[in-house]
Each structure stands twice: as structure tokens, then as C-alpha cells.
Amino acid sequence: MCFVVTKSFLLTCCLPILLMGMRYYFSRKVILHYLDCALHTDMSDIEQYYMKPPGSCFWVAVLDGNVVGIVAARGNEEDNTVELRRMSVDSNYRGKGIAKALGRKVLEFAVLNNYSSVVLGTTAVKMAAHKLYESLGFKHVGVVEHYALPGMTHSLLERMFFQLRYHRYRLQLREE
């Protein structure tokens, strides 16, 4: 199509490279803005966001003196749920059961604090993350297409070159 319009082999060959470069640029830009936003909100004061509020907690997985994973839980009294948040495992330690252990810690916390369910949302594109949640008993309850991360500017170019699906999961612990 490009060749038909422009009659240029050079432009036709360069267009895919240009498009991939723009996708990389906007993906990187959005992710860096998101990380900056996270580092200036809840992750800048873990104690304030996850340790002080009732029904919330934060765990760190340490192996051989190194932090290899984290997970947070944030309770919501209105609907008696706890949200699993910020689960992350160092890429060098994935596949060793650390994420599953962290997830189970949140589930234990929810049961001990009499929450009726645990919820989570993820933009993970790797199937391993989704399989992990399902192995912990979570049920996939929906997808939000074209999800906007905190820090996104919602520009036309961002929307063209960076799109996310936000998957929601729920684990019912008991009926209300």
C-alpha cells in the first residue's frame, strides 16, 4: 500500500522500522511515566499506604540477604474485599515459587482479617502471571480494553502506539 501511494521502495522498507521505533518510544515513555508516578505515590511511602491503614499490609521476600519480591494488600471496608497490589518478583528469581508464596500470604491475611474476597487487576501480558493467579484460585472476571495507566497523557500518538488490556480477577473466600 505504501509503495502504491509513494512509488518509493526506500520509504516502503523504512516505514515498518519507523512504526516499530515509534511503538518502542511511546511504550517506553508510558512505562517510565507510570513508574515515576508509582515512585511518587504509594511506593514512596509504603508505611503510610500499606502499613498504617487498617486492613492493609506489605510483605517483602528476601533470599540470601537480597530483596527478591514484594506484594501489598489494601483492604476496602465498604465491600469487605482486600486488593492484592504491587506483586513483583525480580526477573532473576522467577519460576521459583516466590510469587505463589507472596500470593498465599495475601490470601492468609484476607482470611485472618475476615475479608469475603480478594481482588486484583493486572496489565501483565505474560501468560505466566495469569496462570499464577488462576493457580491461587482466582477467577478471571473481566477485561478493560485500552486501559490507561496512571501517568499517561492520552495523546493520539500514545493511544495509537501503546494499548493495554486490564484484566480483573476475584477470589471469593466466603459469602457475605
Question: Could you give a quick summary of the protein structure above?
Answer:
Keywords: Acyltransferase, Cytoplasm, Endoplasmic reticulum, Membrane, Microsome, Mitochondrion, Transferase, Transmembrane, Transmembrane helix. By secondary structure, this protein is of the alpha+beta class. Helix content is 41%, strand content 27%.
Structural features, described:
This protein has 6 helices and 6 strands. The protein has 176 residues and is of the alpha+beta class. The protein has one domain (10-175): Aminopeptidase (3-Layer(aba) Sandwich). Strands 1-2-3-4-6-5 form a 6-stranded mixed sheet. Helix 4 (98-112) links the parallel strand 3 (81-89) and strand 4 (117-122). The mean pLDDT is 90. Belongs to the NAT8 family.
